[in-house]
Amino acid sequence: MSLKKIDSAGSRGPIPCESLNAIFDLLISKRLSEAEKILREMEPLIRENIRDEFDLGFLQAIKGLILMYKSNDRDTFLSNIDLNDAGALRKYYNEFLEISKDNLHSPYDRGYFSALSEYMLFALRRLGSRGK
After folding, report:
1. Which of 17, 51, 53, 115 is the S-S candidate for 107 at Cβ 3.0 to 4.6 Å?
2. How many domains does the chain have?
């Protein structure tokens, strides 16, 4: 299976690719205040880039990831995904990607799951670059 690359053409949501990758990196590194700061500083620009419900869902997923890690809530299935388990990351990437493309779901939900699939993809690529 080949994984799509998130690059400057990258993210389909309202957050520029470089910023999204920085936020994902900070989340994985548990540097949550820094991730939150990037998002907060970019909020005016992000709000200008929101075009539709898809983008709103995408943004909410990113905010939700930050909140999940900040609250240290171990009851959510996302917080229990082992970011060092390529098989699990690939499984969830595929599931989230499938939902994000399914027109039976609302645009908001497709945006939400698109952001989660991009997070899983980022974690997979990061894991691969570490030689796991």
Report:
1. 53
2. 1
